[in-house]
């Protein structure tokens, strides 16, 4: 019948993942042909497209799906959204020029920080992180720029730090080859406090040499990005898609390094049950449950 996947702007991380996912899903006759659709506002637009039936699957950051389910701003009405599968855990990190006197995230008080576009999920993450650190946006100067413009501003000295996500991403790779940069660590206790406070973050280690200037492993918060669907999407379609994702996890990793840790994201299912993937109170689609049961990742009693 063919399915449509909502992603992000061309060359954005969700878009690049969508291209890899299409290649794997197209191998399933029940799903082909798969169409990858671009989006100007990623998670928000994809949730709204699921609501209106314009797409069957949509990439989203897990911090948005609970809001979509409840109809909280920026969503105009509750959306009968369902979880399909995790896609990756993308580290959220602040970078500065190598010669900067800023040593930790807490030191950004009074500085100019490129935090992303004003309506973006990055700004929401910045509010989450600074809120836990007891900093408000009035304690520094937020500069609302997209990734590419923010990187240019950092290179030109127009901002003191930039908020980035995830790795690898082309903007970060290009910037680290243009100028010497550092990734800011968290002050003692701050990262643990953030993990305890914000349920949809996970600690992820950015390995040394992942980008130029990263000369030691550093742990950062990561948001789990997910594939969502709508309750109305037929169970066989979702079951087939999840089966393709689970069995094609290694191929997805070869096609796009953002999928490299995909199997680790399925790991909590056997012990935690469906709740391991039900971020923001959004339940797994019945088709997804059927696929995880068949793959041996979910026990029947844990699927309830």
- What share of the residues does DSSP label as strand, in percent? 15-25%
The third-level CATH topology of the largest domain is: D-Maltodextrin-Binding Protein, domain 2
E-strand count: 11
Helix content: 25-40%
Q: Provide the low-confidence segments as ranges.
A: none
CATH architecture of the largest domain: 3-Layer(aba) Sandwich
Q: What is the residue-mean pLDDT, rounded to a whole number?
A: 93
Main beta-sheet strand count, sense and barrel state: 6 strands, mixed
Give the class from helix and strand content and strand pairing: alpha/beta
The helix count comes to 12
* Helix/strand order, N-terminal first: EHEHEHEEEHEHEHEHEEHHHHH
Radius of gyration: 19 Å
Distance between the termini: 30 Å
Can you characterise this structure?
The protein is an alpha/beta fold. Helix content is 36%, strand content 20%. The protein folds into two domains: 3-90 and 224-303, Periplasmic binding protein-like II (D-Maltodextrin-Binding Protein, domain 2, 3-Layer(aba) Sandwich); 91-223, 3-Layer(aba) Sandwich (D-Maltodextrin-Binding Protein, domain 2). It is built from twelve helices and eleven strands. The strands form two sheets. Strands 1, 2, 3, 4, 10 and 11 form a six-stranded mixed sheet that branches. The mean pLDDT is 93.
């Amino acid at each position: 019948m063919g399915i449509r996947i909502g992603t992000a702007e061309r060359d954005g991380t969700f878009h690049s993942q969508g291209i890899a996912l299409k290649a794997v899903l197209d191998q399933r006759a029940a799903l082909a042909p798969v169409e990858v659709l671009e989006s100007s506002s990623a998670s928000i637009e994809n949730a709204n497209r699921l609501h209106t039936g314009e797409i069957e699957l949509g990439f989203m950051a897990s911090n948005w799906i609970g809001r979509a389910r409840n109809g909280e701003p920026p969503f105009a009405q509750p959306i009968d959204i369902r979880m399909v599968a995790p896609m990756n855990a993308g580290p959220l990190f602040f970078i500065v020029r190598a010669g900067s006197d800023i040593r930790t995230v807490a030191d950004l008080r009074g500085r100019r920080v490129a935090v992303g576009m004003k309506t973006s999920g990055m700004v929401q993450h910045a509010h989450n992180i600074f809120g836990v650190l007891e900093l408000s946006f009035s304690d520094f100067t937020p500069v609302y720029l997209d990734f590419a413009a923010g990187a240019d501003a950092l290179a030109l000295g127009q901002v003191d730090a930039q908020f980035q996500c995830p790795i690898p991403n082309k903007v970060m790779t290009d910037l680290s080859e243009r100028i010497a940069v550092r990734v800011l660590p968290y002050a003692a206790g701050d990262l643990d406090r953030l993990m305890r406070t914000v349920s949809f973050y996970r600690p992820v280690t950015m390995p040394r040499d992942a980008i130029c200037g990263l000369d030691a492993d550093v742990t950062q918060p990561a948001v789990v990005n997910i594939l969502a669907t709508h309750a109305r999407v037929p169970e066989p379609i979702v079951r087939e898609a999840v089966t393709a994702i689970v069995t094609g996890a290694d191929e997805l990793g070869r096609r796009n390094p953002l999928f490299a840790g995909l199997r680790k994201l399925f790991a909590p299912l056997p012990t935690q049950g469906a709740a391991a993937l039900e971020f923001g109170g959004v339940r797994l689609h019945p088709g997804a449950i059927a696929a995880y049961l068949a793959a041996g990742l979910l026990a029947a009693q844990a699927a309830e």
